[in-house]
Amino acid sequence: MPIDSKRTLVLGIGNTIMTDEGVGIHVIEHLQKIYPEKEDVSFVDGGTLSFSLAGFLAEHEQLIVVDAARTGGAPGSVVCYEGNEMDRYLTGNRQSVHEVGLTDLLDIARLSDHYPENRALIGIEPESMDWGDEPTASVAPAIPQAADIVIKLIDRWGMQK
């Protein structure tokens, strides 16, 4: 890992002009406000995903992805899939265009020997993916909850150094 690299990439994905579909980006914005200079962490707005993000992934040892995810829970419910559980979710669940793109991005990391041992997907159940620049009332409260999970993962993984 290059000396100027950071340890953990927190990647929010989504489209902020489609209500709950952009919740991953809203979590990143929340984290950037609360932790503007969190040591060894990069908070990145990954938009709707692109292979150009492979470079970011290669520069980090750990990955946390935050996205809207259909898991069958109530709108606004938050899940955290870690390690192999994340891989299983992404392999078996193709309900979002992001999950397909995320799987492809992780395949690139695997092929280039940058697949993070510590990885997690924090998913927030959406209510609506219609046009709108704010999350719905049932999903908005999940933003700080998901941010707390991100920080707890970073702290726990930091103790494993």
UniProtKB/TrEMBL annotation:
GO terms for molecular function: aspartic-type endopeptidase activity; enzyme activator activity. The keyword Ribosomal protein does not apply. GO terms for biological process: protein processing. It holds the Pfam family HycI. The keyword Transmembrane does not apply. Transmembrane segments: none annotated. Gene3D superfamilies: HybD-like. Keywords: Aspartyl protease, Hydrolase, Protease. Belongs to the peptidase A31 family. This is Hydrogenase maturation protease.
